[in-house]
Amino acid sequence: MAGTFEKTNLDWQIQQLQWQFGEWLERLLASNSDFPSGDDWQIPQWLLRGLFWLIVMGLASFLGWQSYKLFRPYLAESWRLRRSPSPPAPSSSKTLAVAEWLQQSRQAQQQGNYREACRFLYQAMLQRLNDENLICQDLSRTDGEYVALLHSLSTLDRPQPYQILLRTHERLCFSKTPISAEICDRCWQAYREIDSVESPL
Q: What 3-state class would DSSP assign to 36?
C-alpha cells in the first residue's frame, strides 16, 4: 500500500534558506582576501541563524508597514465610526403624527440644522403615505422601493414632490454633502405641494 508523503514543509524550507544564506555568506567572505581561507574556517551557526531571522523580521516589518499604509484610510474610517458617538436611533422607528414631524422639522430649520429638517420632512411624508393607506411604512424599505411604489400608484397625480424628498433623503444617507437652506426650502416646497393635493381616498 503506497503512503502519502510530504514533499516539503515550512520547517524544511526555512532550514534550506538558512543553509543557502550561510553558503552565500561564506562564498562572499571567502572571496575577500582579508579573511583566512581554508576548509577549517566557518561562520558560527548562531550568527547565521541570527542574521536569517533578522532579515525575516525586517521583511515582515516592511510588509506590515506597507500594508498599514495601504489600509490606513479604511482603518481610520473604521476607528472614526467606532469612536464617534452612535447616531440617534432613526426616527423612522418612532411613530409620530405628521404634525409632530413637521414641528420637529421647523425647529431644526430654525436652529440651522437643515440636514435634520429635511430628514424630518421625509419622515412626515412617509407617515402621511402610511396614514392615507397609500404605502404602508416599512423600516426595511429603501428610497428606491418607495419611488417604484409611488410610480405604481394610479391614484397619485404628481409623484415629483415625493421624489424630491426621497432623493434628498438619499443624499442625506449616502453623501457627506452639506444640506443648504435652499435645499431645505425646496424640500418644504415639495411637502407643501404634497399637502395641497387632496387625498384621493
A: coil
